[in-house]
Specification:
7 strands; 5-stranded mixed β-sheet; 102 residues; Transcription Regulator spoIIAA; 26% strand; two-stranded parallel ribbon; single chain; alpha/beta
Amino acid sequence: MEINISDREDYTIIKFNKNKLLGTEAVEFQDSVLDTLDKGVNSIVIDLSNVEYVTSWAIGMLVHAFTTSTNRSAQFSLVGVTQKVKEILSKVKLDKIFSIRE
């Protein structure tokens, strides 16, 4: 499995276990987000600490998860974002949309 899910008291962490997000994990990721929201969790944290590279497809996957969460009144944030990924998100102005925490 390319994704680990950790439920906490007030939020759920979805962590990627690989250093490149190519978009091939989109179905598993979206299922994880939907399952989490269906459980009534109101805050999703995406841990990107292992990720050094994202493709445009992977960025679309994150945007879709953000939109799905927001439409269900859930908070959505990114943590552990590496410098390389921050630069990519900044180029497409998503650093202004996503809540990015250290």
